[in-house]
Write a structure and sequence with these properties.
It is a single chain. With 58 residues, this protein is mainly α. It is built from one helix and no strands. The longest helix is centred in the C-terminal third of the chain and has 31 residues. It starts with 26 loop residues before the first helix and ends with a helix. It is 53% helix and 0% strand.
Amino acid sequence: MGPVNGGRIRSDEGFCSERPSHIRTSLQELTMADPAFVVTTIAVFALVALAAKGVTKL
């Protein structure tokens, strides 16, 4: 008697070894995520600095 399912390991989506196309991330998306995070972090710190400067003038 042979292995069940022909020896293939079943994933949640079935027997397909490829990921669905809507989950794939391109290299460009990954490289744009880092600068976006840095810019967002700098903007948040700038807003906090402005708020702190405004509080000290009170």
